[in-house]
Design the sequence.
């Protein structure tokens, strides 16, 4: 029995075919966000069709589908309440996909789905309580409590990137100033390096590499990002007492040159208690799509539609 899964992002849509709990196929497409919101939905439906075809090649059509999206979501209603990068507002993603495929569809938040995947298959699989914090274009957190991601009363828990760590700082897309995303996200690192160096087109990963090589503006931008992220992670630890924090996303792929100074900075802020273990995520960019597949499998196991 197979399921198909879609992780819809502002830049890419990642797809997976999972058969009997094993990843048998995967694909990636350009989202081409910025078009009419309905056009983005049509792209998602087309990607789902391709995954169905891929599943058939592996021995049978899927029994269910899972789809996860960024932003604010209503998981019970299956609705993308606000996914600004996709142009979606109150978009009934689950209903449209279920009607298109004539399949049961599980729907969720991309980061919380990534937390599910890391909990069962990755860096959190032996830990009942931890935070999964992907640091990529944006920053968010999945708060995994007793093995399950905590959505909050309104489904909006984990908007970690909009914790204000630099009051009065740069304007954030959310409308506030000094949010963590404005300093420590990959987008912010690239933007701040361009401002400090005058050189455009340098990725966040390249900024971290240049910092390792002693490039002055890169060191400054990296250290500011690490400090801001450490402030946020220390606050998260004081509030929720997680023993482990799993760092994912593009910046975490830089490995120990990024994680080691982050560990040190977090420990310095926790003067009265031990710091949590900071570990790299194990599933990389596949976490969201694998989490969506797990949601689809859970839907089948529970007998729901």
Sequence:
């Amino acid at each position: 029995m197979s399921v198909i899964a879609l992780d819809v992002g502002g830049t890419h849509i990642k797809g997976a075919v999972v058969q009997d709990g094993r990843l048998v196929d995967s694909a990636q497409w350009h989202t081409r966000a910025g078009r009419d919101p309905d056009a983005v939905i049509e792209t998602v439906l087309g990607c789902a069709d391709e995954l169905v075809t891929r599943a058939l090649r592996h021995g049978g059509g899927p029994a269910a589908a899972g789809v996860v999206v960024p932003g604010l979501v209503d998981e019970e209603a299956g609705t993308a309440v606000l996914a600004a990068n996709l142009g979606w507002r109150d978009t009934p993603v689950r209903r449209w996909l279920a009607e298109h495929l004539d399949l049961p569809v599980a729907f969720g938040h991309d980061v919380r789905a990534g937390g599910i995947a890391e909990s069962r298959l990755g860096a959190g699989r032996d830990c009942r309580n931890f935070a999964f914090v992907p640091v990529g274009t944006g920053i968010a957190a999945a708060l995994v409590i007793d093995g399950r991601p905590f959505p909050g009363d309104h489904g909006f828990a984990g908007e970690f990137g909009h914790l204000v760590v630099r009051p009065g700082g740069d304007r954030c897309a959310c409308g506030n100033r000094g949010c963590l995303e404005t300093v420590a996200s990959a987008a912010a690192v690239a933007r701040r390096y361009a401002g400090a160096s005058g050189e455009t087109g340098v990725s966040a990963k390249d900024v971290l590499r240049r910092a390792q090589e002693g490039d002055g503006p890169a060191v400054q931008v990296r250290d500011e990002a690490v400090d801001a992220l450490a402030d946020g992670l220390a606050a998260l630890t004081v509030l929720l007492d997680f023993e482990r924090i799993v760092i994912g996303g593009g910046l975490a792929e830089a490995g120990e040159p990024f994680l080691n100074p982050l560990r040190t900075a977090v420990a310095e802020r926790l003067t009265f208690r031990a710091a949590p273990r900071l570990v790299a995520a194990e599933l990389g960019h596949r976490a969201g799509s694998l989490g969506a597949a797990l949601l689809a499998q859970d839907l089948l196991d529970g007998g729901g539609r």
Q: What stands out?
A: Residues 216-240 form the longest helix (25 residues). The chain has a mean pLDDT of 93. The chain has two domains: 2-109+285-302, 123-282. Residues 226 and 262 are 6 Å apart (CA to CA).
